[in-house]
Amino acid sequence: MLATSRGNAKVIAGGQSLGPMLNLRLARPNILIDISGIRSLTEARQEGDAVIFGACVTHASIEDGRVPDPTGGFMRRVARGIAYRAVRNRGTIAGSVVHADPSADWLTVLTTLDAVVNIAGTEGTRSVALSDFVIMPFTVDLREGEFVTGIRVAQRAENVRFGYFKFCRKAGEFASAMAGVVADGRTARGAIGATGAKPYVIADASQFLPVTDGTLAEAAQHVRNLGIADDAAADRANGVAFARALKQVAQ
Q: Which helix (H) or strand (E) holds 202?
């Protein structure tokens, strides 16, 4: 159906991103293709050293522990802070990723976790690192006739620690600054979100380990100096968010 629609079809799962866009006439497809009835896409499964989250796995399923969590509870904590329960009941992990809103939780968190996007289409299947899949805000690497089937997240060892912090005006709103960190005591990877662009990856954040008051100050200043948001106040908020995510790693 996607292949024969000549670009005039949209895939819908939970509809928590696409629905508002349809209401505002920002998206006007001729055809909506509902994939929520495909059972395999509503499940998560262990595959080797990773968990594959089906495209239709909801935030609530992750929050409630109804699917495996390769991060030992970190993804459950993140899911719990997404929007409101009504949204989490319907919204899906892949829908959030494909929508590619810079202020969305999963985009930054899954980039931090170096997640991989599984894609299917008329030409076969392929997998793309999430950091490459997102081209720019609201624009992703999906070709005509393709849709996302799942998100792959590597299983983390027990010694791995996670941190995630976001600034919101009130609970449930999109963040104005956010950052995530994953560290095993020797190496660390971070990502800065809500910048107005795709998440900024700090591939080697080990320079801020072990976490001390001094390294936290250095981390905040480092992100501030990057000038990711091209706005002094926003860059300061990004730096503080990154430092607070790092602090969680040490707790």
A: strand 200-202
